Amino acid sequence: MHPPRPLVEMLGISVAFGPVQALDSVDLRLYPGEVHALMGENGAGKSTLIKALTGVHPVDAGEIRVNGEPVAFSGPAAAQAAGISTVYQEVNLCPNLSVAENLLLGREPRRAGRIDWRGARRRAAEVLGRLHLDLDPSSPLGAHPIAQQQLVAIARAVEVDARVLVLDEPTSSLDASEVEELFRVIRRLRDDGVAILFVSHFLEQVYAISDRMTVLRNGRLVGEHRTAELSRRQLVSAMVGRELEVLDRLDHAPAAPADDEDPPVLSAVGLGRAGAIEPVDLDVRPGEVVGLAGLLGSGRTELARLLFGADRADRGEISVAGRAVRIRNPRSAIDAGIAFTPEDRKAAGVVGDLTVRDNIVLAMQASRGWMRRIPRRRQDELARRWIELLDIRPADPDALLRNLSGGNQQKVLLARWLITQPKVLILDEPTRGIDVGAKAQIQALVAEQARDGTAVVFISAELDEVVRLSDRVLVLRDRRPVAQLAGDDVDTDHVMELIATGGEAGA
Amino acid sequence: MRELLRKPIWPLVALLLLNLAVTPSFFAVRVQDGRLYGSLVDILHNGAPLALTALGMTLVIATRGIDLSVGAVVAIAGAVACSWIAASPDPASSGAALTGIVLALGLAVVLGAWNGFLVARLGIQPIIATLVLMTAGRGLAQLVTDGQIVTVNNDTFSGISGSALFTVPVTVVVAAAVYALVALVTRRTALGTLVEAVGINPEASRLAGVRSRSIVWTVYVFSALCAAVAGLMISANVHAADANNAGLWLELDAILAVVIGGTSLAGGRYSIAGTLLGALTIQALTTTIYSVGIPPEVSLVFKAVVVILVFLAQAPKVRALLARRRRGGSGPPPAAPTTPAAPAPAAETTGSGR
After folding, report:
1. Do A47 and B352 touch (CB under 8 A)?
2. pLDDT tens across A138-160, in order?
3. Minimal CB count within 10 Å: which of A287, A486, B204, B213?
4. Are residues B57 and B26 in the same domain?
């Protein structure tokens, strides 16, 4: 099916950062016209391998061949000149520039030494057209949702005639229809003979798109397999390298459904904000997990932000534990016993240049005010306990948070709130872009919190996850609530249908 | 102290040694009329206003802000105090001096609150918000003094600059006390951490419940207060308020001192010890220009060269280059971690670095 010679061969690649061996003699082969998935937990070495391929990190040992020729890229620009384009997990574009400018930044068509703007817009429209993206090239990039920006980043990567396209977690912020759109583009590029390296934490997507996969664990190669020949279970066990008790345990996770007689701890009536979400009624009882399901932009994040006061509601009322509260900002929500981890972990959650310890105690310290510092010994105690409890790695309270992997950062953010013992815990995509192991730990933690009587509002782009964890699910669509499901009605197919049809058409 | 040693102390040392080479008696200190005298004392004494202003600036910059209005506040503080004293029934009395000082400091709180209001409440970019007062403030000072230089003959007021406490000039004592106080407060309370959190990631801090608005407000008020004290020192030193020239361009020197001290203009992590070093370096530079006898027409160029050298030596790229030279110059460059300046920690979680 594939020609005998791979387009890219990486042989015996080793990369060390100081004393830490990030990659230890890893091989990777990419064939033209194939989608190759690179699999592994966070910290397995996926990003490092990609950066070695694209010239970001020099390799300590091993050889990279493109078309059989040994190469040594001095940097991403050299790799790109050789036809290797990369799209990273975070959108690395300039939101203040237009879509066209972003697409062609650094390679704008020139005429007589000046940028040919008309030509640039035409070229941009062509590229967007090729990917069937309906965007105005002259609109500012920042005006579009993150998902669209991601697609622009991909468009930018294929704008040069890339022979190898590296996609590092391209789907982590896309909803189902956008993923489908992206996959159409990927398949088209594949059929053109492009070799595609695809990294994703979503197993279903990997199985849907990839032909072949390479599995890494702890910087070592576990194996290369044809996707069709490796079951999901085998794959996950190859990635985590341990028995899957965590995942199994989760299948029995849903806590005992809360008693309907219990008064809700969080109750919102007619809560809404013009342009963000139509009025919603929502009750969450102690010990209950309420899932918010819907596509990106359906209003699930918007609702969570209103509940926490991150955005101010312009109508409706909120009461906590039966008492009406006015939530004007996060501070007043926190005082009422509400905690919230935002969807955009990096921009709105992580204080990267502070230590793990400072981040863990941040919310508690903020509540005490700056005058009453938490004594150092107490800080150490809290940090040590929660690092151990949530298995945060590295287990070093003095590490800067930005040096931790996504999953571990998320655990630190959870610890930040859990030490304040909130009545209501609102989690917006707590498992996005993190590895299977950390994901299972966080899911288990959510179930455990609910068992201990915390009311949880849980948001995830992965329906399976929402359904598995939630006692009740509020389905949102087009910034409107369409249904609330409870008990046996909570099932993936049903929720999916409601999201697709809004519960009106069909049935 | 250990923190101090990690800061770029060599430019200051180099400047002092240069002076020693030119003037062998440069380090000499003598006591006269119960007060210390000598070039080193002069550097501390003359550098006190800059050191104070830069201290306020450090906290402002740590919150991702900048305060361009400090020079204007210096002028206003001097103008208000001197005008009050000159207009009082007994211009030589201590009462007039004290009232004038309190008035000046009180006004500084109002001006700092105004900056804080524009930045924290209205969300105006700090550089624009404080530019308003930078421009308007000097006009205000001129209005107070009627465009004249207001001279005062008041021993209490002059004492701010001229007197000594246990032979140490009061200016130095005051500056040292404020530094000590800030170091203590930021370390013993959570203010330091919260200021850094707000500077590193304002949105994350807001969502964690940090009252970032009041913190930002506080640092602008503190910055204005520091500038006002500096303004009182400057006008007490010359027994006059010069609305046109007092504190002129001081804001730029203050920013320079902060940056030389290693605090990033991007906000976040800051260093009080570094700022002190930066301020003293700048003052030593000014003193050197006079003491070494550099002609006035090249003094700015000399200053520029020194500043450029200091910054180049601190630039991560230049450091990496020098380090590679020292190691022999062959082989691949060191694997670049996320922050070139601090190579160690980036490798802790391999593979997920971004």
Report:
1. yes
2. 888 888 877 778 788 888 887 87
3. A486
4. yes
Q: Where are the beta strands (DSSP E) in chain B?
A: 30-32, 35-37, 150-151, 164-165, 168-169, 240-241
Task: Tally the C-alpha atoms within 13 A of residue A4's C-alpha that lie toward its C-beta.
Answer: 0
CB-nearest to B351 from A22, A310, A403 is A22
Q: Which amino acid is at B270?
A: Y
Range of the domain at B196: 2-293
Reply yes or no: is the peptide bond before residue A422 cis, omega within 30 of 0.
Answer: no
Whole-number Å distance between alpha carbons of B247 and B159: 19
The reply to whether A405 touches chain B by the CB within 8 Å rule is: yes
Q: Does the domain at residues A249-337+423-507 carry the CATH identifier 3.40.50.300? A: yes
In this complex, the residue of B193, B215, B343 whose CB is nearest that of residue A365 is: B193
Of the partner residues B189, B207, B350, the one whose CB lies closest to the CB of residue A48: B350
Looking at domain A8-248, its CATH class is alpha beta
Q: Where along chain A do its domains lie?
A: 8-248, 249-337+423-507, 345-421
Q: What single-letter amino acid sits at A122? A: R
B312 plus B186 within the same structural domain: no
Does residue B186 come out as left (phi exceeding 0), alpha (psi in the -120 to 50 range) or beta? Answer: alpha
Question: Average of pLDDT values for A33-56?
Answer: 86
Task: Report the C-alpha gap between A467 and A460 in whole angstroms.
Answer: 10
Q: What's the pTM value of the predicted model, to 2 decimals?
A: 0.74
Work out the pLDDT band at B162, boundaries 50, 70, 90. Answer: confident
**pLDDT tens sequence across A252-281:** 444 455 456 678 999 999 999 988 889 999
